[in-house]
Amino acid sequence: MSVTSKSPIQVVLAALATARRGLPAYSHICSPKTFTQHQLFACLVLKNFLKTDYRGVVDHLVDHSNLVELLELTRIPHFTTLQKASRRLLAADKAKRLMDATVRQQMGRRKRVSSAAIDSTGLQCGTASAYFVRRRKKVESPWKTVVYHNYPKLGIVCDTSNHFILAFQAGRGPRPDIDEFRPLVADALKRVRLSLMTADAGYDSEPNHQFARDGHGIRTVIPPKHGRPTKKPARGHYRRLMQTRFDREIYRNRVQVETVMSMIKRRQGSHVRGHKYWSQCRDLRLIALTHNIMILVLVEVFYRAVLPRFSLLTEATAKYSGLARV
């Protein structure tokens, strides 16, 4: 099982190595070349790592000159520079290229994942305390029993052996999970080969089983409980198979994706700062990338990418010697 890093230096170096693998230094030949895309992406990851906003990460860089030296910044970017950079670097196509880079660094030559799990979770749009939410419930009308609110929704496919995210999908809920199975699995198959997929009853459908088993040779273990409860046998072949020969021992691996959700919310917060749909999607993509980078803190990864700066790494790590090392 994996442990996320607590060291900002190691996270920044892993983010730089990931960006160098996935993105060019500059987005255009006529770019002003004040900051590279690698530096700006590392600042965005540091923002999520510190659970702060754009102004907060800029102030953190002002107070910690060793991080500025590590990023090789000639000057500290303005907070609006980071906000505008997030629109470019966290667009859907570039975010997928960065996810490809993290998976290549994690997997190396090993391209097959023996066990994966899929799930989704909702995050909050604000920072209201749980106490405020409880008090608010008491003043609502007694006849109003159900209230629906739109919330950011993150769907992921993760490796159950190391909690590493293999694919993600950002959207908005509430909405059913059943139609997210095929896009997420197809996205994960672009990076790795899957042998086993476990999911909860929200993804239960015969077309999902057929897509995974017949189309890609992936064994699926999903409880056949979607729809109204009934004692009749399911119509589909694979759903009937789940009713008669459900493997509970293998299905226990699915709890690891719940652990990934818990790791994300504990380390990066349970809310996003964006208010509009596209800004919330960018925040969700950055959350998934930051989670992988915090797991990806390995000396070999950024030693190869930052080899000429190894002396600077040693000096900077000495200044942060009190922080945990993964």
Fold and architecture overview:
With 326 residues, the chain is an alpha/beta fold. The protein folds into two domains: 8-89 and 296-319, no CATH class; 110-267, Nucleotidyltransferase, domain 5, CATH 3.30.420.10. The chain has 15 helices and seven strands. It has a five-stranded mixed sheet with strand order 4-3-2-6-7, with helices on both faces. Strands 1-5 form a two-stranded parallel sheet. Helix 1 packs across helix 6 (92-107), helix 1 packs across helix 14 (299-305) and helix 6 (92-107) packs parallel to helix 13. The longest helix is centred in the last third of the chain and has 19 residues, at 277-295. Residues 117-293 form the Transposase IS4-like domain.
Please supply descriptive tags for the structure shown above.
single chain, 326 residues, alpha/beta, Nucleotidyltransferase, domain 5, 5-stranded mixed sheet, 7 strands, globular, disordered C terminus, DNA binding
Average of pLDDT: 87
> Structural class of the helices, strands and pairings?
alpha/beta
Per CATH, the class of the largest domain reads: Alpha Beta
CATH architecture of the largest domain: 2-Layer Sandwich
Strand elements, count: 7
The fold-level CATH name of the largest domain is: Nucleotidyltransferase, domain 5
As a percent range, the share of helical residues equals 40-55%
Strand order of the largest sheet: 4-3-2-6-7
Radius of gyration: 22 Å
Percent in strands: 5-15%
Per the principal axes of the C-alpha atoms, what is the gross shape?
A: globular
- List low-confidence stretches: 299-314, 318-326
- The span between the termini is 12 Å
User: How many domain modules?
Assistant: 2
* Major β-sheet profile: 5 strands, mixed
